[in-house]
């Protein structure tokens, strides 16, 4: 594992860094992505690339260990589209548990799961159960972190509407991996805010293209600001894990 110790972006997080550096507790960051369709213009690895972008910015700003990503997770709602690959929630739960246990044997007793795929619901259970056992684990970003990032970046699509391959994901990839964004996102907007039966009928019941959101509004500038905001927001998570 490589440890990053770069400068922190704000006075608040700089104070957190000073406190964190004074304790022996070590923190690892694990990006968790997926391998699933993201419309005709974003790659199957989109969620992994987004999770790695967030984790990479965090590792450049905080004293954490950056782990390689989990690249296949729970994408069952996208099964109607070729190319989508999933593992069961039980398997993902076990993988995270094994990684956390291995880290603890190496002296790294705190783990942050940077989740890039909304369908990885089980990660919340993993964190809850680990915390109940007295282990230090966190799930990042929270919905509040995304909302703050959306507002700071000037993303006009709400988090409800921006569900898949929309303004946020397109913006992040236009900033970090523009060579992987194909033409077509400019005309691919599709809105389906009422998705209450999603877990029962899957994504294909709500969209033919796999897109739910407004990718036409994506820009690299928004992607840059989204990542900057999430990096700042991570300060609270880091402080929580390193306290005491």
CATH classification, class level: Alpha Beta
The string of secondary-structure elements, in order, is: EHEHEHEHEHHHH
* Helical segment count: 8
* Beta-strand residue percentage: 5-15%
What is the helix fraction of residues, given as a range? 40-55%
Tell me the major beta sheet. 5 strands, mixed
Q: What class would the helix/strand composition place it in?
A: alpha/beta
Count of the domains: 1
CATH architecture: 3-Layer(aba) Sandwich
> Mind telling me the C-alpha Rg?
18 Å
Coarse shape: globular
Spans of at least 5 consecutive residues with low confidence:
1-23
Q: What is the CATH superfamily classification? A: Creatininase
Question: In CATH terms, what is the fold-level topology?
Answer: Rossmann fold
Cofactor: Zn(2+)
InterPro entries: Creatininase-like_sf, Creatininase/forma_Hydrolase
Pfam family, one: Creatininase
Family: Belongs to the creatininase superfamily.
Summarize the structure.
It comes from Streptomyces flavalbus. The protein is of the alpha/beta class and 244 residues long.
Would you give an account of this structure?
It comes from Streptomyces flavalbus. With 244 residues, the protein is an alpha/beta fold. The protein has one domain (2-242): 3-Layer(aba) Sandwich (Rossmann fold), CATH 3.40.50. The chain contains 8 helices and 5 strands, in the order βαβαβαβαβαααα. The protein has helices at residues 11-21, 46-61, 89-105, 122-132, 143-153, 167-176, 198-201, 220-242; strands at residues 2-4, 27-32, 64-66, 110-115, 136-140. Strands 1-3-2-4-5 form a 5-stranded mixed β-sheet, with helices on both faces. Helix 5 (143-153) packs antiparallel against helix 8. It is globular, with a radius of gyration of 18 Å. The two termini are 24 Å apart. Mean pLDDT is 92; it is low at 1-23.
């Amino acid at each position: 594992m490589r440890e990053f110790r770069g400068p922190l972006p704000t006075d608040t997080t700089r104070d957190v860094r000073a406190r964190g550096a004074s304790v022996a507790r070590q923190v690892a960051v694990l990006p968790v992505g997926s391998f699933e369709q993201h419309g005709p213009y974003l790659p199957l690895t989109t969620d992994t690339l987004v999770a790695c972008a967030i984790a990479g910015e965090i590792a450049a700003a905080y004293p954490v260990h950056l782990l390689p990503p989990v690249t296949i997770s729970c994408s069952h709602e996208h099964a109607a589209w070729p190319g989508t690959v999933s593992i069961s929630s039980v398997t993902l739960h076990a993988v995270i548990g094994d990684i956390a246990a291995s880290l603890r044997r190496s002296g790294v007793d705190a783990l942050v799961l940077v989740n890039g795929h909304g369908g990885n619901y089980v990660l919340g259970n993993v964190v809850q159960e680990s915390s109940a056992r007295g282990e230090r684990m966190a799930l990042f970003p929270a919905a509040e972190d995304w909302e703050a990032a959306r507002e700071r970046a000037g993303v006009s699509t709400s988090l409800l509407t921006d569900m898949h391959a929309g303004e946020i994901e397109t913006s992040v990839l236009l900033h970090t991996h523009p060579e992987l964004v194909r033409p077509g996102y400019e005309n691919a907007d599709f809105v389906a805010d009422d998705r209450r039966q999603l877990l029962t009928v899957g994504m294909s019941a709500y969209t033919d293209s796999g897109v739910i959101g407004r990718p036409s509004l994506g820009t690299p500038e928004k992607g840059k600001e989204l990542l900057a905001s999430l990096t700042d927001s991570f300060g609270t998570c880091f402080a929580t894990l390193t306290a005491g």
